[in-house]
Amino acid sequence: MAEHSTKDADFSSRLEFFARRLFERIGAAIDFALRRGGGLEGGARADVATLAPLVERVIEDDLKSEDSRILAPNLIELRYDYETYTRMGASRREFLQREMDASVYEYIYNRRYATLGEVQVRIAYDAFTRGLEIKTGFGKPIPAVVSQNAPDGEATATDRAKGGTIEVVLQIEAASRNPRTRVTSGAEPAGIGRNSANALIIDDSTVSNFHAALTLSANGNLALADRASSNGTYVNDVALETGGRCVVRDGDRLKFGDVEATLRIAD
Questions:
Q1: Of the residues 3, 80, 198, 238, which has the fewest C-beta atoms closer than 10 A?
Q2: Four-point Cα dihedral 257, 258, 262, 265, nearest 10
Q3: 26-41 burial, b for 16+ CB within 10 Å, e for fewer?
Q4: In sequence order, which residues have a C-beta less than 8 Å from that of residue 67 and are 6 or more positions away?
Q5: Given the DSSP bridges, would you call strands 200-201 and 190-193 parallel, antiparallel or unpaired?
Q6: Phi/psi class of residue 54: alpha, beta or left (left: φ > 0; alpha: ψ in -120 to 50)?
Q7: d(C-alpha 212, C-alpha 220), whole Å
Q8: How far apart are CA 126 and CA 147, in angstroms?
Q9: Under 8 Å CB-to-CB from 179, ≥6 apart: which residues?
């Protein structure tokens, strides 16, 4: 009888836990919907109800067998395009990360999957992502925000320091002021475009709000990426594919819409 009572109490406790989480998620979703305003593009991609099935599908695809147990990835990274990421705002990203943490944990726990570490969801952006990418990893929780375009779950502060920092200048003919910025390996990409949120602002009607971006890899290579610009991104008169990227060097001729510039790089 005592054994049955213990089992019943355990079942009731678990049932109460899941019921409480369900109502919390419903309330949070309603709160999120009420605060969504502002016309966020791709809003469905930032909604827990839409994201959860996508993440669950990726988890199922990445399951591993180890001895007699099934391992699920415990590191989940949601990589958004720059525009969607910035339009979400910090509070929405925090909300989404918190809710997805709980959602992923419940999914793995309910299926009795094993993990190699604590379940952790990260919200990030990637200059080379168009829309949303879901990346997974196995192992210890990421100690800091994952570097953009780094191997899944493997970026550390030491890795980010290896690539160093360089100064980039866009020399534009007849411009009163040439835009310049510093690009650091593993840090946020340096955006190029008409919008003031970019590190390199080009105020020209043929340049998109978020036209292109520069990133520095751990081995020191500087890459230029097109961000699905309206009028194209060119390197030495060769057009990048929409969303494409290539390594660029000091002295390369770049073109954003109708604006031509020479790339200057300093250590």
A1: 3
A2: -30
A3: eeeeeebeeeeeeebe
A4: none
A5: parallel
A6: alpha
A7: 19
A8: 9
A9: 169, 170, 172, 199, 200, 201, 202
What sign results for the dihedral spanned by CA atoms 196, 200, 206, 210?
negative
Structure confidence at residue 173 (pLDDT): 82
Radius of gyration of the chain (CA): 22
pLDDT of residue 32 exceeding 60, the answer is: no
Residues forming a β-bridge with 239: 234
Q: Report DSSP state, residue 44.
A: G
Alpha-carbon gap, residue 126 to 215, rounded angstroms: 10
pLDDT higher for 54 or 44?
Answer: 54
Separation between Cα atoms, residue 10 and residue 17, nearest integer Å: 11
Q: In what order do the strands lie in the sheet with 212-216?
A: 200-201, 190-193, 212-216, 222-226, 245-248
Q: Where are the beta strands (DSSP E) in 72-189?
A: 75-80, 120-125, 132-137, 165-172, 180-184
Tokens in use for 236? 């030495």
For residue 26, give the nearest of 52, 58, 48 by alpha carbon. 48
C-alpha closest to that of 93 among 136, 163, 35, 12:
35
13-17, 48-52, 114-118: which range is least confident on average? 13-17
C-alpha torsion 169→172→177→178, nearest 10: -10
Contact 193, 208 (CB under 8 A): yes
Burial of 50 (0-12, 13-18, 19+ CB in 10 A): exposed
